[in-house]
Structure formats: C-alpha cells, structure tokens
Amino acid sequence: MKKFWTGLLLSLCLSACTDIPNAPVSDFQFLTPRPFGYVNGDEIRHRVILETRNGVQLQRGGLPKRGAINRWLNLNRLAISERKISGGFHYEIDLVYQAFYAPLEVKMLAIPAFDLPLAQGGNVVTQTVPAWHFTLSPLRELSIRKDESGEYMRPDTPPPLLNNGGVLYGLLVAVAVTLSSAVYWAYLYGYLPGLPKRRIFKQAGKKLARCSERQTDEVLSVLHQALNAVNGAPLFRHQLADFYQRHPHYQTASSQLEWFFQASNQYFFAGADTAADTVARCRTLCAFCLDIEQGRR
Amino acid sequence: MGDRAAGVVADGQVLRGETVKKSLRTIALWAVLLLGGGAVLAQLWTLYGIARTNGLITALSIGQEVTLDKVVNAAPEVRLARAMVLKRLQRYDEALATLNLILDAPDPALQAKIRYNLGNIYLHLAIAKTEAMAINDAMPLVALAKQAYRQALALDSRFWDAKYNLEVAMRLLPEMDKITNEKNSPVNQKSQLWTTVPGFPRGLP
Questions:
Q1: A4 assigned to some structural domain
Q2: A200 and A117, same structural domain?
Q3: A205 and A123: one domain?
Q4: Are strands A57-58 and A67-68 parallel, antiparallel or unpaired?
Q5: Which domain holds residue A200?
Q6: Which of B79, B120, B164, B177 to mutate to test the interface with A (most CBs of A within 10 A)?
Q7: What is the ipTM of this complex?
Q8: Domains in chain A: how many in total?
Q9: In chain B, what residues touch A151 (CB-CB under 8 Å)?
Q10: Does some domain include residue A3?
Q11: Among A35, A251, A264, A287, whose Cα sits 20 to 30 Å from the Cα of B200?
Q12: For residue range A145-180, what is the model confidence (pLDDT) as tens digits?
C-alpha cells in the first residue's frame, strides 16, 4: 500500500512538472552538438527553442552578453528569433561559443548554465539552460618537438594574391553588352553580311555620289533600282499605296517619292526635260530613304 | 471626306510617334555602346592593376627587391608580403609596424591571416626571449601572440595553423583563472607566479 501511494505521488509530480496548463513555458528544447572531439579555437553552436504561454515574454536584457564568458570561453554570436503563437511566443535562440583552451590531455569542460528571464507584467520567472559538458583534446603532443629554428610552430601564411574573378565576370558582361549593341548597330547600319536589304540605299547613295549633275538618266535609274529592290519587284507610281502598306516606314517620304515618280515619268515617258535640281533632290531622297532603312527615321 | 482627313492626320501622328521612337532607340543604342565600351576599358584597367599587384606580391614572396614607394600605399596584401620579407630579414619592429597598419583590412579572411602572422612574430620573439631566459620580456610577447591568434580564430574558426600556434603560446604561458580574495593567500600568489612563467612542460621521459 505504501508503494502504491509513493508511486502515485511520483507520477503526479512528474505529470505536474511536464505539462502544467498554466506554466509559463509550454515547450523547452536545448539542442546541442556532439559532446566530444573539440580542439582549441573550435566553435560550438547551441540552440534553445522556447515556447511561452499567456503572453509571457523573454527579457532579452537578461541573456548572456557577447564576449568573454570566462577565461577560456567566448560567446561570439547570440541571435534570437521571435514569433507569436497562440497565446504566447515562440523563441529560437542561437548561441555560438568559442573555446580557447590548451589541455595537456583530453579534458572535460563545461559551458556554464544560465537563466532565461521571462516576464508577464510584473511577474518574472526563469527557465534555466543547463550547463553543457564536452571534451576538448590537445593538438600537439606533450613532449617538445623542435625543428632547426627551435620550437616547432606552424609557419606564416603566405600573402594571398588578389582575386580577379569578379573583375573578369564584369569584363565578360561588359564585352557581351558592347558586342550585342555593336552587332545590333551593324545590323541597323547595314554592315552585317547576309542582310543585303539594309544596304540598298547605302549602295545607291554611293552610286549617286559618283554621278554628275547631268547624268539624270543614271540617277533616276539608280533610285528606281533601289526602290525595286526594297519592293521585291518593279515599283510603279500607282503601286505606291500598296508599297506603303508593306513598308509603312517609307510613308514619311511619300511626298518626295510622289515627286520622284512624277519626275521620272516625265523624263522617261514624256521626254520632257527635268528641273535643274532633279539630281540634287534625288540625292536628298536617297539619303532620306537611307535613314529610313537604317532605322533613324 | 472628313473621315479621310482624320485618317491622314492619325497616320501622320503614328508616323511621327514611330520616328521619335526610332530616334530614341538610336540614342539609346549609342549610349549602350559607349557605356559598354567604357565599362570594358575600365575592367581591363582594373585587371591590369590586379595583375601588377599580384606580380608585386609574387616578387616579394620570392625575396626580390621592391622599391618602398611601390609598397607604401599598396593593397594590404602587398604590405603583408612586405612584412614577411622584413621578418625574414629579422627587422621585426618594422614588420610589426607594417602589420599593425593593415590590421583593419576590409576582408575578414585577409584580416585573419594578418593577425595570425602578427601572432607568429610575437611568438617567435617570445620563444627567443624564453630560450635566452629573459622571462619578463617574453611574457608580454606571449600575451600579445595569444591575443592575435584568438582574434584570427574569432574571424576564422577553421584556421588550423592559428589553433596550433595558439596552443604553442598557451603551453608557453599557461593561463590561470583569476584568484578570488579568499584564496588570495601568499602561497597561492606564489603558485600563480610559478605557473605563468613561460616554458614548456617536460613531463614525459
């Protein structure tokens, strides 16, 4: 009977400790890495997960401060993330310690315990994060090893060469951008091989430049050939509306084209003399069409 | 007739819009071309500068003479190389002064290397003093070496050479916990003095 009561009391105590409905902490986890295999200068990462009830909040001012915890232990980083959950808060506290200890043999050390202060209004309670034990090993043997320069120590680290990876990447991007715009520029100005259409009025312009003011016949023919090449078939005055539909950019030159076909008809079919400025106007028209061809108009 | 006129006006506006668009495109194209060309030139110049600096570092590393004016305002890497040359020439004060000037290098990895090499100079001097039995001179040097190694390890905890040499320094000058007032008896003070005298444990046969 005595055993029964003792067992009952113990189970009640345990259940009371684990899940009290009104306890300020509903969940507490202390996540730690392996407790062995560390050496001088190693970092040790701990994570504390804490969930509170009834709006109980963690008092950040009471947490360990970054810097030296004791002679051989530093707290390098302390990061706290907080989010609201139903009725309370969920905290994740990441701690990065660094141990500076040079044991003569494998030694058990402990990261000291600390309290997490929790508050709700004027009430303050604490949740203890327990001490964590781990072993630290020496890096060098106990007896002294010497090289020709005396006590053996690791040599200086050579100065690193400057990294040019980022600059090379930047250069590649700049070259790609420049080349792309240059190719597009060449395409617009008719310098790309295999795209003759872009060079029609350029070549016509060169031919016109070689003609004299009296070579009206030659000048008109050159312009006709250029317009025929753009049209893909011989182009006559009555087809201009259709031409503008297929090549709308040339509509900006409609009045000049109208004049050109009229002058050409008069010259070739009516046998009339052309005006004195015909060749000059044809050159102007050709330059205008060249601008259209190269996308400048 | 009115509809036709309106159509012509609309066509004219569309064409004017197209013309403006094309002009803008041409300007943008030229701007991109010029900016791209400028960026290429700038990157090439930077690459040339990096190659020249790396040449300087290599020359210093293999012990070639480099004029001081090339080093004074050079990148921290060059000055680190210069400090190592000075150390090889046993001009320790100049090496320490050079390293102290570049302790705040912007790159943490480089900073860790600078602090490690600084610690090595202090430790080297401390060992020399210890072997010459100049213990009082050695103690502050070991403390400075340990501080430099700790700083290097705080920047890069995987710096194995720094871990090793820190252990060398810690064995040379073991650290003791602060003694509280209750324990601060003359016997304990004597013990503390004895344990912080630099020297390596020679316990094993």
A1: no
A2: no
A3: no
A4: unpaired
A5: 189-293
A6: B164
A7: 0.72
A8: 2
A9: 127, 168, 200
A10: no
A11: A35
A12: 666 656 688 999 999 999 889 999 999 999 999 999
